[in-house]
Design goal:
This protein has about 240 residues and is mainly α. About 65% of the residues lie in helices and about 5% in strands. The protein has a domain of about 150 residues. A three-stranded antiparallel beta sheet has the order 1-2-3. The longest helix is centred in the C-terminal third of the chain and has 29 residues. It is globular. The chain starts with a helix and ends with a helix. InterPro entries: ABA4-like. This is Protein MAO HUZI 4, chloroplastic.
Length: about 240
Amino acid sequence: MAALLLSSSATRVGVAAPLALRQQRPVPSVAALPGGQLRTGSAGAASTWARPLRPELAAAVSRPGVARGRAPLFRPRAWMASSQIASSAFTWGTIAVLPFYTLMVVAPNADVTKRAVDSSAPYVALGLLYAYLLYLSWTPDTLRAMFASKYWLPELTGIVRMFASEMTVASAWIHLLAVDLFAARQVYLDGIKNNIETRHSVSLCLLFCPIGIATHVLTKVCAKPLVRVAATYNIP
């Protein structure tokens, strides 16, 4: 009986010793590094190691508020950035009006110029583009910036803040292109009707529309006596 008791006690001691050692073994700690790496090591260990993570896991670990081990949510990328849309609208809007100015300056009396000037297609296209850019640039503070004074009149400071956006500047440029082309068209048609030279006035309407209109008025006033003389003596 004593031998049996001694053998059973030795067996219990032999089984309990590895369990006690296993419970006392330090558990490796896991920590995230700034570069998206995991550093593991035991508490009190002299050496640690770091292994780079995959990009998607590194983003999840380094991003605050995201649980570790969970893949980041997929966010669809925009087709075009707002600055790209504004730049493209600015460039293509300018290119679209140049053929009409070229025809009115180079060949004012040609049939193709008259047909192109009578067309409403450029104004419809510019109007739709302007409406789209205006939609993209519109914010709740737009009306407040436009009518900032107590008399519901625009103020310079509010307009300056509003035009700090590239999209707003692009929409304003398309607005100017449409208005300038319409003014140049009116100058051209008035010149054809009254047989007055309008090439210089049409050219000025492209970038300096008010100056182009004023130049056409001065040209018309100065050319009236010459037109009367030419009509009296049948001078072409």
